[in-house]
Protein 1
Amino acid sequence: MKYFENYSLKDLNTFGVESFASSFYSFENVYELIDSCHPSKDPFVLGGGSNILLLNDIDKEVWSYDVKGIEVIKENSDHVLVEVQGGEVWHDLVLWTIDENFGGLENLALIPGKVGAAPIQNIGAYGVELKDVLHCVHCINRKTGLPLTFFNDSCEFGYRDSIFKRKCKDTFVITSIVLKLSKPDYHIINDTYGAIGKVLEEKKINRTPTIKEISKAVIDIRSSKLPDPNKIGNAGSFFKNPIIDVSQFVLLKKSFENIASYPVSDKKVKIPAGWLIDQAGWKGKRIGHVGCYENQALVITSDGKASGKEIFDFSTQVINSVYSKYGIQLEREVNMVK
Ligand code: EPU
């Protein structure tokens, strides 16, 4: 275990916000984690720092679960169960599955962050969500040190949502996940997302694409639309895509003919927040050290000098301006750490 006092988190959050942890623990095996669990503690558990906004210094223990490892734990002729430790980098895992020709994660390429954080918001992109391939989640209770396993059905997954954001918020450390991935003849290719089809067409791939081709297409799309957090501070989509009633959508459509939308159910419609923010005039706009990304309005950027408060205030201005134009209240997707 590594332990530091008054530890800078600037390099451990993708916004590059300066914030100090009064005490910082990096766990290198599960026993060190279990030993640190105690009913009196209320630690902040840091993942890859790619979906948080640090608003202040953190005056409590910060825990980082840094155990790595990828292992096939069971297989039959059509599928494998793969256990992945929480400290693995998500994209490294995706590349490993492509190399092994195990299908299921190819649409989720290049998502920043660590494996342990992936179930919390049910990461998703290009028509696939983690819940589609997740078998179970192994956790340790932060207060008791006791292990618990959540099978897919009990994770209460939704759009960018799970039990770990609600009933079980701040209760567990996710130590590993088990994924059910397909063997070569059983891959289910998902190329329904418009942008993927376009890239495949450009590459003149007219047959069913391989998982490697899908992952390459996703990497191309993400690299062209989303800023690289190693170069420009950001945390991916800053807001969730709002889901509104069809009745509100019908009214909006009268005033804003071109409003983009995706059907969710008979009664609900999802509106791309990027469209709303773009149409409200924010795309490419900067205030001080904070900006709205020029290629995807859903992303808020920092030049590395912005404080958490400056980024938060910028996001509040975006929320207020979208609300006054469309009557839609945007919700932050990034977690605010107070
Ligand atoms: N749009 C604009 N202007 C913009 C951005 C988007 O008009 O500046 C409109 C366009 O109509 C576009 C539509 O929004 O067709 C959708 O845009 P895009 O395909 O880029 O997807 P998104 O809805 O903005 C979501 C996820 C992304 C994920 C992509 C692809 C959320 C909050 N975001 O973005 O996830 O990569 O779909 O599946 O659901 C993330 O969570 O950090 C993330 C990047």
Protein 2
Amino acid sequence: MPRTTRIALDLASAGAEVSPRLFGTFVEHMGRCVYGGIHEPAHPTADAAGFREDVLQLVRELGATVVRYPGGNFVSGYRWEDGVGPVDERPVRLDAAWHSTESNRVGLHELAAWAERAGLELIEAVNLGTRGAAEAADLLEYANHPGGTARSEQRRANGRDEPFGIRIWCLGNEMDGPWQIGHKTADEYGRLAAETARLMRFHDPSLELVAAGSSNREMSTFGEWERTVLRHTAGLVDHISVHAYYEEQDGDAASFLASNVHLDGYIEDVAAIIDEIRAERGITAPIGISVDEWNVWNQTRWNDVDKDGVLSGGWPEAPRLIEDRYTVTDAVVVGSLLISLIRHADRVSMANLAQLVNVIAPIRCEPGGAAWRQPTFFPFRDAARLARGRVIRPEVETDLVATSRYGEVPRIDAVATSDGDTVALFAVNRGLDGAVRVRVPAAGLRPLGAELLAAPADGDRHATNTAYSSAVASRPLEVREEDDDLVFDLPAVSWASIRLARSRT
Ligand code: AHR
């Protein structure tokens, strides 16, 4: 007899609206995300601009809403002008962030046209590592001014008559990290971000600007960084970023599966700092949290790296960097991180799964070959498709599992959303052993369909997908109506999304 858990949904308690921007993604000029990822002119499916149609179809299926571009660490040494104008005349540069050679064959115009085809709103990051306010304003004028100025006419001459109309701009990237090109103290960055924000707002007060928060919660400067940066920028920015990556360390799968306990705390800590500084400065406008890089990233097990390239000191073009092969366990962690983001929709204004293709990505592809879905693709796709309306934080009666990093944590975690007519329930079983029978008091709800992502029949939680086999995919989950409950079973290490209809009485 499996363990039983009860998930009660109080539909009257629906809270914050879930922004579609919670399901954003990230394309960086890094490794094979752009070149050899979304863009491969020699691929049999490539379009006239060199973008792979098979990859594009998977991107559409993933259902992401916004895309952050062009970095990441890359942006801190990037000259945006290198990526515009006739492709054959663009300079080839060394990219010091990833020790690679950058051909600049893809830049703003190509990426924006591709994003439009993919149904993604473009979020542009500006370089505050080696550059400053003037270059950011130049890019803004180039991208968004209708015409009649040097920069806007340059854009038009480069083939784009209408402005790109980019609304959301990131002010630099991970400037707290010593690895960052142009790394700064919180005061140095805060001043520069404020100066840049002011100038960009003189151009267009309606922009949405994102200040760079800490690179991770474990940075020794975490907290003070956010306070200092917000003291400089509160009233000028709309969001502050959070970056969060998780991995299974030293075989401690129980703690890894509970990673969203860490993300919950991280978001709540940053939210408290935002409240503190808004109160201190008398700022009434909200400041959201943009979790603009999050994912599972096996940083201590550097996966599939081009050992003949970057690590040996070369400057390869589009090397294989951090092409993590994700497992069922990783997918369940991604699912639980999505639960945290949705649960905190009152504070999280945007989020970007980092990255989109090949580089720690839900989509992988091979040169001249196949494109495929990694296990992490499925929970993201489910949540992006189904999370609509307002958040419901269910009451979950479950037993606890022991973890060395977070103490005892609930075996089952869940969140739901409701748009009035339908309810979407997302749940993870983060226990390593044994299925759980879940009972949801029906209270006028009826099942419309459900999907499960779990280990294949052999129960291997390390199962993965490759160019040749797609053993891991979501499959239909049976939801039974029993007495006054909806009942389904969650195997150990699994993610489920359940769609329910509300009957109107
Ligand atoms: O997503 C990979 C890298 O992780 C990004 O370039 C950087 O911002 C972060 O450290």
